[in-house]
Fold each of these.
Amino acid sequence: MGGNIGLPILAQDPLPEGGVYVLELSSYQIDLTQSLDCEVAVLLNITPDHLDRYDNFWAYAASKARLFEMQSEGRLAVFDQSLESAIDEIGISVRDTTCHVDRVYFAEVASQSDWPALQGPHNAQNAGAAIGVCEHLGLTGDQIEQGLRTYAGLPHRMERIRDKDGVAFVNDSKATNPTATAPALAAFAKIRWICGGQTKTDNLDECAPHFGHVRKAYTIGEASELFAKLLSPHMNVAECVTLERAVGEAAAEAESGDTVLLSPACASFDQFRDFEERGDRFRELVGAL
């Protein structure tokens, strides 16, 4: 496993044949290669991001969709059916008769409640994609179900780090924009939401449908004042500025059944080296409660 998760793949020795190599690739990494012929290529979603690097949203989307363009005959492309029109508009033809790239849509998932580390609508999407890939690679239904049921999750991605007096503490520091935070807000019923940092947008529109799940917001970082202004018409808000203060106040006010959720909807660079350092600090603060 490599790319954005684990080891930088281009820095490794040549990989031996016969293994299954899973690469999680950013558009930046895709831009750097001309010959990445994936046996299975998966495009989970396309939402505006990194637009400082690209001329417009469609240029960014085309960068991601190049994964399909680089596939040779007989390969598999996995994506949500809702992306089909976007892919066609970009000009990446998954159905080109000269390419013969097969395609499969994400599977519908029904047993998500049995997968403790895979809650929320975004993880339903992730699981649906994984099921399609695993079926193509020859795994049985029982093997796939056991993998989903026993999967422990990844750090900083809806990571449940502690339960204290009936309060759950969840580290979703990887959510660096509102689109990434929205599924976390959808996944829990009573949330103490720690949000803010170095903002990528001047709104929280993607999160708005789930504001009803938030009991109170605790804003931090450069976006503390902006987010407080955006959120105060919809919920109670505390401008905390620092993560230390936000964790302290949220923990002190939380009641049994609440979830204290760090899902910043922002980059971390105003106060931390990266989202991982931010999530590690959250874990330390929660552990010290």
Amino acid sequence: MNGTPKIELRNVAKAFGANRVLEGIDLSIQPGESVAIIGGSGSGKSVTLKCILGLIRPDHGEILVDGADVTRMGARELERQRTKFGMLFQGGALFDSLPVWRNVTFGITQGRARDATRMRRIAAENLERVGLDSKILNLRPSELSGGMQKRVALARAIAPRPEIIFFDEPTTGLDPIRADVINDLIMSLVEDLGVTALTITHDMASARKIAHRVAMLYDGRIIWQGPRDRLHSSGNPYVDQFVQGRADGPIR
């Protein structure tokens, strides 16, 4: 693909004391592309995501969003940059004290009072996009099932119409059927809205379904990347072991 990548990581490294989490990450994501980063617990997936979001500053390297280096931005510029981002947090991270409609529009209002009628309409439109009825607008998240909570969180992620959506373990805590429903929704939303997507996951079914391309993070480096249909024929013993969930292999 040609043109400026939507997201580009160049030799990104991060350590916490003696713990070297990222050893030099290189990754490029094109506009409208959906990429999944896979890897085991502690492989650095979440740290990579937090570095892109500007929540953690890497020790060295560049993180470019639309060609602008996030690592060199001040607080105000970084805040403007984050308006391009939508986020589906692991576990949903909904506010139990707020009704569904205020949760969905939180990214637009930032918790401040706005035109309630308009916000309810926006919430209803986005709930419809994820297959939920407007009857739940006034319910609290605790009154919803886990699968419905995840859909509400997805509606919140897309409500501000971001250019980039990050998915943090989007199917965690869901049974296989509900997980597949969420994967289908993510795939259709990415295509319908034309957004760029970056997912971190250890769920191979999710990676295969929602990503155009998959990258595997191991020992602080991306050791393989390729189209999702190559995931089961990568020729990389680390990827093969992880994808197949085998105890025997180079990963200990």
Amino acid sequence: MDSESRRFIRSRRNVLAGLAAAPLAASSIRPAFAQAQAGPSWTPQETQAALKDAKGTKLVLLGTAAGPVPGRSRQMTSHVMLSNGSAYVLDCGMGVTNQYARTGIPFAALKSIFITHHHADHNIEYGPLLTVGWIQGMRPKGVQAFGPPPLKQMTDDWMRAYQQTVDFWAEDFHMEPLSSVDVKEISSAGPVTQDENVKVSAVVVNHPPVKPTLAYRFDFHDRSIAFSGDTTPLETVAQMAKDADVLVHEAMYVPAVESYIRDRIAKGRPVKFDAFMAHMKADHSPVEDVGQIAQEAGVKTLVLSHLTPAIDSISDETWRAPAAKHFKGVILAGKDLMVI
């Protein structure tokens, strides 16, 4: 954990130690939430119903699991925001293409893709989303991609690898070929892009050894949505998310991580417990500290996602309770396909 993380945690613990446990404000959550609290995900029908004729900007959590681990009930990290008929995807973990399709949002609505950092659980399905999305109606000349270097090289390499596949489809169905998309690489904090629906900015966060790793803020006309990306607890994130309507923050429940890795070691995984936990604490945010970040930022709703460990035996209340020690707003334990 870097010096900024340590300073932030010490100062917030001193200031916020006397706060009572935060109310969950269940009455303020839309009825659709109450219908979908059981299990790690919403059904596609629930998601589509929540998006149908929706007024204003909506956020859908496509995948809420941390780590490049296949075979779980939760998909890897990805999100989509829908505003005024345009879709903005943040991160492309495995499963993003299927999850996007399950929302019922047309692929033709896809306008921009944002990548926080280059770990497989955040970028492994970036190329497939472009190719399959194109086959399903995505307009390649209208799509932009943003993220840390070498995103442009990755995009070009993917296009070269799949050129023959694209050419076959383009010839067979008389489609405009997918040659590339407009890629803009982001290496530092500041404005990222702006269009008729949203203004996007980014800050650099702490996720060693990956550099740069980004957190993003999306300021739509009707609401602001901030994403921490993968990071230790940082004052930078609290400042970036100041007064946002929604903060989606990664969350690690340390007791369960410890139990999980001990179990894996007992079953033969070749890793040392102390080394693994040192890595987790140097790269990720304990859920109690996430509550402090949200309280400092003054956000209305905190969404816990990129859950570590992403196992179904951890209840929603177990996820929320540590954050609620410090945060007084609405706390949601993220579920795949949840609409916010």
Amino acid sequence: MNRNTFFETNHVNDFVDWLVKSLPALNIRLKINASRFVPGGIAVTFNGFNNVLNHYIWKSTGVRTGDWNETKTRLNALSVDLRDAVDRVDGPATLSACENILAWGGNRDSAVGAHPFLREKVGASLCEYIADAGDSFSLESADTSKLAPPVIRMNAMLTKVHALYAVDGLPIYDSRVAAAIASLVELWRRANRINGTLPPELSFPATDRERTVGCLFPDAVDPGVLAYGSKSTPHRWSSAKVRLGWIIEAAIKKSRNLVLPNQNVSDPERMRAFEASLFMIGYDVSCLCQR
């Protein structure tokens, strides 16, 4: 399925239209416990998806406060370093750029997950792998049936590497983002009284059993949880990542006011801001409770 085929589906277009109409009036009650990434925690209620970034915090490696303005600058620097290293086919520099992304992302154990996978590919093969995956992830030409291979591994850290290598706003699809978009799909489904299973185009599986749409509605239509190590996970995760990118891109093209209103910024920057807003909502999707 390519982007044109994706938007031939009525449910997809209906969902994008619902986002454009509903997000500006969305009631949000952020309640995030204090942690090293969110010092002091967050407890605030406000109206409108476009106000989420006012409360964005991710105080990780390479940032001082972790607010959105500082974070977007850090992400841009990480992206530039990674693309430059891959373009030069500099394996050690590419590995270093990836490790800096993982450090920003909060990777907790360098002995498992993304670190050993990337180290095994150090050298020209690492550069080739990231570049080939980047070609398949291009939102303009991606085909969800042809993502894995070249993508052969995906997890919460590798999704950040691939997203920051991209220049078109390809989103980071981690546990918080996954839970948030699945919850918005569920709100749309309920608002439009759509029964039965979710259309596959709008099925966004969780990546963590502790963060699912069930935290918002226990009786929600459940898109499932991606299992680390499963042979199907690289494809399913990559598909969700691309489909979310298409949806965000379509939504912000229809309304510049969904995120960064009245700001003269590029579409990819606006898309990254949209994803970051989903990230904050995804800490605890019960913040969207409409009951």
